[in-house]
Write a structure and sequence with these properties.
Elements (H helix, E strand, L loop, with lengths): L8 H13 L3 H6 L12 H15 L12 H12 L3 E9 L3 H8 L5 H4 L3 E10 L2 E8 L9 E9 L4 E6 L5 E13 L2 E12 L7 H28 L5
Length: about 240
């Protein structure tokens, strides 16, 4: 659920409390950090708040909401109205699984494989686990986004589990890559589970759309590069 940017959710929660729960608007304006209990909201008022929020946002307010400020209630509603992000994208590559595995897990050469990364710096290796810093090409505003991730590749199961160590605008980001042999090639599947921090440039739904769009682009690029290399008899 995306909330209207021209009407902040804190204002909407305040309006509900004033209109339905008897909150004094001057008290709310004068003590923005006060809890609902400190603002004089009793159990009946909280029940009414919960009922209106459930009807309007399809979100359940916990019984302990009396300890939250109005902004705290708004943050809780925003988080629960915007479920965590989940994406799954796959591509079929006309090349053997061992080749696809080796090329796509060579993190140090990701700048040759992906179009979005300007730098891929290996920070630490421990067996099949690698910690690394990725830096993207500058965006339209000239900002080069950078973060540290860690991934563990299991050559036995042909799966990779990764996570962002420096999460940036994400509360968390977990990534799972799967590889399977198919007739005439390899299917590679990327799954990402994440949640955005309050105040991030995009909410979970917006980031889901962005990741799905970008994944389709990058998977197509990877497919073309690996298939071309394999057809030419090379490994890159």
């Amino acid at each position: 659920m995306t909330l209207a940017p021209d009407r902040p959710l804190t204002g909407e929660i305040t309006e509900i409390l004033v209109t339905h729960c008897g909150l004094d608007p001057d008290a709310a304006a004068g003590a923005p950090a006060a809890s609902l209990e400190e603002l004089g909201m009793d159990s009946l008022a909280l029940l009414e708040l919960a009922a209106v929020v459930a009807d309007r946002y399809r979100v359940k307010i916990p019984e302990q909401a009396d300890g939250l400020s109005i902004a705290g209630v708004a943050d809780l509603v925003a988080r629960r109205a915007d479920p965590p992000g989940h994406t799954e994208n796959a591509v079929d590559i006309a090349a053997p699984l061992p080749l696809v595995w080796d090329v796509t897990n060579d993190v140090a050469r990701w700048t040759e494989l992906f179009t979005e990364y300007a730098v891929a710096e290996i920070l630490h290796r421990d067996g099949d686990t690698v910690r690394f810093r990725l830096t993207m090409h500058p965006d339209d505003n000239g900002v080069a986004w950078s973060w540290v991730s860690e991934r563990t590749a299991d050559p036995t199961t042909r799966q990779v589990h990764a996570r962002r160590v420096e999460t940036g605008p994400f509360e968390y980001m977990r990534i799972h890559w799967r590889y399977e042999e198919i007739p005439d090639g390899t299917r590679m599947t990327w799954t990402q589970d994440f949640a955005m921090k309050p105040g991030a440039p995009l909410d979970n739904a917006g980031m889901t759309d962005r990741i799905n769009t970008n994944s389709a682009v990058q998977l197509a690029v990877i497919k073309e590069k690996i298939e071309r290399a394999y057809a030419a008899g090379g490994t890159r």
